[in-house]
Design a protein that fits this description.
By secondary structure, the chain is an all-beta fold. Strand 1 and strand 2 form a beta hairpin. It folds into 4 domains: about 55 residues, Immunoglobulin-like; about 100 residues, Sandwich (Immunoglobulin-like); about 100 residues, Cadherins (Immunoglobulin-like, Sandwich); about 40 residues, no CATH class. About 0% of the residues lie in helices and about 45% in strands. The protein is built from no helices and 23 strands. Strands 6-13-12-9 form a 4-stranded mixed sheet, with no helix packed on it. The protein has a 4-stranded antiparallel sheet with strand order 14-16-19-18, with no helix packed on it.
Length: about 325
Amino acid sequence: YFSVSYGTRSNGNKYVELVLEKLLDREEQAEMGFSVIAVDGGSPLRSGTIEISIVILDVNDNVPVFTQERYIGQVLENMPEGSLVLTVMATDQDAGVNGDISYQLSQAVGQSDSAFVIDPITGEIKLTKPLDFEAAQTHELSVRARDGGGLSAICKVLVEVVDVNDNAPELVVSSFSSPLPENTVPGTVVALFAHDPDSGRNSLQSYELSGDEHFSLAVQAGPGGDQRPELVLAKALDREEAAFHELVLRASDGGDPARTGTARIRVTVLDANDNAPVFSQAEYTVRVSEDVPVGSTLVTVTATDADEGLNGHVKYS
């Protein structure tokens, strides 16, 4: 790294200079030690030696480096405020202030009200509020590590929210046909129900329908693999037998402990003209004397219709 040059000044004094021959790297070798030997021209030769110690001062020529380009952490959605998510770490080969690292956190565009905070010294990322799996299943963050000289580096952090069974099944009717015509064909879907907002094993797993044999339950797989119950007409209706039907649907999820939800359904049956008028007698026998005046009432016939409204209004001819 060094060489010696020497000569004589204009005043006759001799000088010796230590010259740097190539660039130093403090991170490769922080100190150097060697001897400079001066030899005269006499006989015998005589020499003098001096020990040189070189201490290399640091300049900020190294950027902080993260231990990982991408960090992935998982957090249960019911973890309280202040819980540790994960710790990022960056190192800097420079010394002193140039090697002191501080951390800053920024959240992805479109995700406001950050639920995370980072310790600027330790790099620990913690929650500022509980997360909600049903609101967002992942959170993308960026962490910047900056050294004391102004150089910085960025890493990405992906936080995956793990679902817990914090929602009871919500059997909200998303589609419902009521009143239902009494001549509706069995197999017709009468109602659709919304699925449980939880996912995986915490989502809906089993159903139970009670209240009426005219209806049954079919379970279809949704686009995300979730189960979606459908209320189906299983047996032909008869409004004259029952004008409405009361049903109870109970759903259970697969969480531990399991949660249940209940929905009460009332299906009103709409009349169809499926009943012919019926006379009170199949045959009327009337004895009339031949001198009965014109316009006299001979007999009154009566017919009834089990249907309602216009369908049950009887006319005679």
